[in-house]
Amino acid sequence: MRYILYARKSSESEERQVQSIDDQLRVVRDFAKRSGLDVVAELTEAHSAKAPGTRPVFAELLARIERGEAEGIVCWSINRLARNPVDSGQLSWLLQRGVLKSIRTIDREYLPEDNVLLMAVESGVANQYILDLRKAVIRGMEGKAARGWIPNRPPQGYGVNPLTKEIDPIEPQFQLLRQAWDLLLTGAYTVPQIRSKLQSWGYTYGKLGAPAKPLFAESHLYRIFDNRFYCGSFTFRGQTYQGRHRVMVSPEEFDRAQGILHKDNRIQPQRHEFPFTGLIRCGRCGCLVTAERKIKHYKTTARTAAYEYYHCTHRKGDCKEVSVTGPYIDSTIACELESVLIDPEFGQWLLKALERFWDEQPPVDPKLIKQHQEHVRATEQKLERLIQLRLAGELDAQEFSRIKTQTQGELADGRRQLESLSKRASTGRQALINAVRFGLDAPRHFAENDTHLKRYVATMFGIRYVLTLGKLEITPHPLLTQLAALEPPKSPRNMVGAGALRPDAPIEWSWRELNPRPKTNEPNHLQA
Ligand SMILES: [Zn+2]
After folding, report:
1. Sign of CA dihedral 482, 484, 488, 492
2. What's the CA-to-centroid distance between 325 and ligand 1, angstroms?
3. Residues 299 and 214 in one domain
4. Is the Cα dihedral 114, 120, 123, 125 positive or negative?
5. Residue 463 Cα, ligand 1 centroid: separation in angstroms?
6. Are residues 347 and 465 in the same domain?
7. In total, how many domains does the chain have?
8. Residue 291 to residue 293: CA distance in whole angstroms
9. pTM of this prediction?
10. Left (φ > 0), alpha (ψ -120 to 50) or beta: where does 335 sit?
11. Is residue 435 a contact partner of residue 350, using CB atoms and an 8 Å limit?
12. CATH number, domain with residue 168
């Protein structure tokens, strides 16, 4: 039997995962050779097969089969041939009349009696259905937003009422956060100070029914004070909506809080604070780099200006490393931060994809956790039996005490191991989620004129800052650069729709990479 080899590469973005024409040709030629097929011609084209009648080479293929130049078609996969019912029908008709006797793909053969071509088209239609469904879900969420209810998870202090599906305040979080806003509005408290206050009030958060978590990171609190949801509005997919939930602060209070947070007009601490002291090492002698402020008066223009300089502390003796200005350090970090910036849409998708991924592949094997749970339970039962034996008088006091001490030790060990396993599972997740959020928000936060925020972002961003010959060299956290590299170059939505980009090995790998703790002076929040 004579075969015509057909290869097609579409330009559609959702088929980006399909092999290139060269790859297809190489694989199919190899397959034809191994199977001893007599290939009389090779036809290739780069056209989508979604709409019928748009592929001249495909039309030529059918015409040449019709003319009897060959009796078979060989191709990489059946979806290279037909992705719409019209083309599929033509092929089925050729097969049924026996003009076409065989279609060979690398995984199977289609014969005249098979009606699989229609099935292949059906599956293509199913893909389209999934894409449409996704659009429908988004439309549904937009509807909810238009009715005044935030379609995403509401921020802290609020929860979704399971009965009405509306957003209700959750106590005592709502009241405690309102008190936090009050502190901010006095203008006398910094965000870290407010965080400590919340901690002393016993503030915890968590989903309804889930165990409460201790206090969140400082960045969470910055996000709360930045979120217009608390004064009544929210954004969803680029649109701003007026919410119907109970507000925590008035719009006037919210605006005043923004002024206090961002214009840095709160009551200043006694000493001038520099954002990057204690973060950078001198490349020449290894000492820390410190900062100082110099006031300069220009006699000719009668102008006074303050300058910030960063220089080596000279702890190990005289060091020749040159000093640099504060703005230079600031702009260098800002520039490097751009490299780990994550596109908002991609970032949101990634967060969701990670949730899905972890549902399927938990960071710690659930079987292992179950084993430990069973061990703990068995030890508890053993202890219980021991007590019963003693009560029944079958054990003397000395014997009982000896076995009891031993069993209690076993139980404590077991519980400790179980706890560390669960902790390992959750810290790995949280670190990765924090890293994605960092890539989404950090560059913007860094640009705000806030010493605390700058310092916070810089600490999380770099694992090493070295000043050498007046040049600042930064080693970003490897997880951040890896995440940024995952972002597809073009419009991510198409890739997402086709599932072409799934979180798999690279992310899992980077999660494992996290375990070595970077050496910084400040606690690194990517770690916990
Ligand atoms: Zn030095």
Report:
1. positive
2. 16
3. no
4. negative
5. 19
6. yes
7. 3
8. 7
9. 0.38
10. alpha
11. no
12. 3.90.1750.20
CA distance 352 to 356: 6
Q: Token match 């050498």: residue?
A: 468
316 Cα–ligand 1 center, Å: 8
* Cα 481 to ligand 1 centroid, rounded to whole Å: 29
Q: Which of 150-159, 259-268, 297-306, 476-485 has the lowest mean pLDDT?
A: 259-268
Residue at token pair 């899992």: 508
Spatial separation of the C-alpha atoms in residues 179 and 20, rounded to whole Å: 60
The enclosing H or E element of 383 equals helix 366-391
Residues 97 and 189 both lie in one domain: no
* Rounded Cα–Cα distance for residues 52 and 83 (Å): 8
Q: What is the mean pLDDT of residues 478-498?
A: 59
What confidence score (pLDDT) does residue 133 get?
62
Using the mean position of ligand 1's atoms as its centre, give its distance from the Cα of residue 525 in Å.
28
SS3 462: strand
- Whether 148 has a pLDDT exceeding 90, the answer reads no
Kindly give the distance from the C-alpha atom of residue 528 to the centroid of ligand 1, in angstroms, as a whole number: 32
Q: Are residues 41 and 119 in the same domain?
A: yes
Span from the CA of 331 to the centroid of ligand 1 (angstroms): 22
